[in-house]
Amino acid sequence: MVSESRARELNALFASVVPELDSPYAKYPLTASSGGRNQWVDPGKGKTSKGEPCFIAGSGGWTPATPTKQDYAYGPGPLGFGYYHFLTRESYAVLYGRMQSSPPVACCAFTSGQRRIVNDHEEVKKIMWYRSLGSVPDDAQAQKDAIAIAQGTAKLVYNYTQNEQLFLNAVGTAAFIGAN
Q1: How many domains does the chain have?
Q2: Strand partners, 146
Q3: How far apart are the C-alpha atoms of 153 and 156, rounded to whole Å?
Q4: What is the tens place of the pLDDT at every residue in 116-174?
């Protein structure tokens, strides 16, 4: 469990790095008990408790001049470009993609202030990554889900490379036996 002071610190960081995250729906930590939600809302069918849609179609790609909407992230998703509500997992995938493609610029003479900007960006991006993969809107569970996905990928790569090595060793052994 994260301390209350750490949660306040991360929420302030969210708002400074990605202004859209200054939303009650995006507050850290997301927990099933905090919002009473135990599943993500389908952006195509779902509505908020206020009756607002969880997806509002947009008119094209995102630019820094794209207007923001309270409680929404604008970007590409399964329903096309538009505003995805923070009740949807897709909103966090939108923000993660945006953060991944436009990191802060730091010159070669890294100062402590520049390092903090980059570290803050990476911290928020990591949480957006977890939330974009989470099976439920819960930060602790989302982190576990992301780790499980990474472990599964690592195991697949390991097994694949082991099979390659076995094959190459068999070919090498056959070539050696055939030469003698």
Answers
A1: 1
A2: none
A3: 5
A4: 999 999 999 999 999 999 999 999 999 999 999 999 999 988 888 988 888 888 888 98
Longest dimension (CA), the chain: 80
| DSSP label at residue 25 | G
CB atoms within 10 A of CB 153: 10
For the stretch 66-90, pLDDT in tens is: 999 999 999 999 999 999 999 999 9
Q: Which two tokens stand for residue 82?
A: 């538009």
Tell me how far apart the alpha carbons of residues 95 and 146 are, in angstroms, rounded to a whole number.
16
- Give the separation between CA 170 and CA 37, rounded to whole angstroms: 54
Segments forming the whole domain that contains residue 52 = 4-179
Which residue is it, tokens 């389908």? 42
The structure tokens listed for 129 are 């990554």
* pTM above threshold 0.90: no
Measuring CA to CA, which residue among 16, 11, 4 is closest to residue 116? 16
Give φ, ψ of 103 to 5 degrees: -70, 160
**15/132 Cα distance (integer angstroms):** 18
Predicted confidence band of residue 36 (pLDDT cuts 50, 70, 90): low
